[in-house]
């Protein structure tokens, strides 16, 4: 977690450990999921390429606020379908099971080594779309439930 804080705040580990203000800033970022929020809306902007970026960002933030807290944070089932489609570039209907881990890592929901061995997909060679969506959704919901607690 310290490494993420360093990266987000652009400081060394030593500076972070010895600065109360920076530690508080990092805690605030984590508590309010600001980094994830900004990454999400910027990703949406890159995909949609709206002509008026400011208006798009305002509209997106208002929509997210109106929806309230979601079980997977900022992600939807449609997002998970899209992620699967991106991994399934040959359109065969299955992807290597390790793509679940890569997806979880990319969305900052990486399971620990102890948790990893207990996940049902861990020992599989390949997974289909329903298994991918169910597995990623389950891990994301666990993560966001912990964050809200």
Helix content percent band? 55-70%
- Across the major sheet, the strand order is 1-2
- Would you identify the regions where 5 or more consecutive residues have pLDDT less than 50? none
Strand content: under 5%
Helix and strand element order: HHHHHHEHHEH
Q: Determine the structural class based on helices, strands and strand pairing.
A: mainly alpha
N-end to C-end Cα span: 18 Å
| Gross morphology | globular
| Mean pLDDT across all amino acids | 81
**Any idea what the radius of gyration is?**
17 Å
Give a short account of the largest sheet. 2 strands, antiparallel
Q: Give the strand tally.
A: 2
Total count of helical runs of at least 4 residues: 9
């Amino acid at each position: 977690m310290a490494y993420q804080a360093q990266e987000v705040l652009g400081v060394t580990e030593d500076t972070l450990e010895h600065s109360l203000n920076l530690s508080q800033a990092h805690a605030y970022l984590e508590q309010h999921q600001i980094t994830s929020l900004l990454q999400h809306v910027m990703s949406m902007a890159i995909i949609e390429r709206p002509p008026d970026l400011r208006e798009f960002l305002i509209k997106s933030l208002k929509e997210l606020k109106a929806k309230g807290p979601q079980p997977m944070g900022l992600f939807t089932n449609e997002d998970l379908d899209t992620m699967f489609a991106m991994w399934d570039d040959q359109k065969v209907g299955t992807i290597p099971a390790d793509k679940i881990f890569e997806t979880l890592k990319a969305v900052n929901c990486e399971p620990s080594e102890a948790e990893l061995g207990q996940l049902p997909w861990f020992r599989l060679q390949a997974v289909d779309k329903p298994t991918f969506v169910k597995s990623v959704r389950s891990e994301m919901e666990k993560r966001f439930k912990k964050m809200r607690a």
